[in-house]
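Q&A log
Question type: sequence-to-structure
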Amino acid sequence: MHKYAVDQTLDLLPSHGSTTRRAAPCRIVALLPYEGRQVQYKVQSSLESYQRIVSEADLRLPAQLDQAQA
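Response status: OK
Response body:
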């Protein structure tokens, strides 16, 4: 089950061990089918001109929203 929704803006976490994905705000473009592993999303980062497929663990609510919900 997906935790986030299409058109929601989240923080994309940087890739561990790689410099190709930097932390940045991103928008959920599509929810991808669950295939027995982690839930995945297609996202558009504000820093990139292309879309990425990322797992739910690579996303988090923006810091200001996290603090408001605490």
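Response note: The beta strands are 9-12, 24-31, 40-45, 51-55, 59-60.
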